[in-house]
Design a protein that fits this description.
Number of strands: 19
Number of helices: 0
Structural class: mainly beta
Helix content: under 10%
Strand content: over 45%
């Protein structure tokens, strides 16, 4: 049985924060703030999550329904986030921000029905690797990723349909590993590239291009996009991927 609570609030500057609550407690709002100290979330479930520190890493595994905001600066950010929202109209928002270091994230929708995800990941002077690993066909996705002076990659769930804009000042690569038709109706993926950095992916009709809008904006670095295979085992060969 899950215990439903209203809030979890932590405000402890200069003190390390560690949270491990498995799936036995659910909060409506979780707000964890520190400064000059690390935050480590082993497990946390909340409708809305707001986590912030500075000059130290944030690492965690968490489940959110409506929003997950995680931020630090001058340190790495490494998170695994499950989003439970099934609302196709109001977006579930995920914002991940750091500076001067790497950003790594795995984000998934656990809803059996299409939902709406609005995701933003930003860093600078550090490599960025983001995987949006799971979501049913028909999911709406708005994604913006940005870094500088380093390379970045975005991996998307196998049923993604929409536009993929890879703006890398060095070069841009796009790979896809479709294995089966995610619509279940025998449609094969159609991939079109109106220009070298822009890719369009759809199945039944070009109206599906309105489902997803993905953009990587990389200054002084390379941008790579990848559509995963259904079992997520396929990835580009190491000699084809970013160095």
């Amino acid at each position: 049985q899950v215990l439903d609570l209203d809030k979890l609030t932590v405000n402890t500057p200069s003190f390390r924060v560690a949270v491990s609550l498995e799936d036995k407690v659910h909060f409506r709002l979780t707000k964890i703030q520190s400064a000059n100290a690390p935050i480590n979330i082993k497990s946390l479930t909340s409708t809305n999550i707001d986590i912030k520190t500075s000059h130290f890493p944030v690492k965690g595994t968490m489940t959110a329904q409506k929003s997950a905001m995680v931020a630090t600066e001058n340190s790495p950010l490494d998170v695994d986030i499950s989003v439970t929202s099934s609302d196709i109209h109001a977006p579930a928002v995920v914002q991940l921000h750091t500076t001067n270091n790497r950003l790594s994230a795995i984000i998934r929708s656990t809803s059996p029905d299409p939902s709406y995800l609005d995701i933003e990941t930003i860093t600078s002077n550090g490599r960025m690797n983001v995987t949006i690993s799971d979501a049913p066909f028909g999911t709406r996705l708005d994604y913006k990723g940005k870094t500088s002076n380093a390379d970045a990659s975005i991996e998307l769930f196998h049923s993604f349909a929409g536009t993929l804009n890879l703006e890398g000042s060095k070069f841009s690569n796009f790979f896809y590993g479709y294995t089966e038709d995610p619509t279940g109706q025998g449609f094969k993926p159609k991939v079109k590239s109106p220009r070298p950095s822009l890719f369009e992916i759809w199945y039944k009709s070009e109206e599906e291009l309105n489902l997803g809008h993905v953009k990587l904006d990389i200054q002084n670095g390379a941008a790579q996009g990848c559509i995963l295979s259904e079992n997520r085992s396929w990835r580009p060969n190491s000699d084809e991927a970013l160095p």
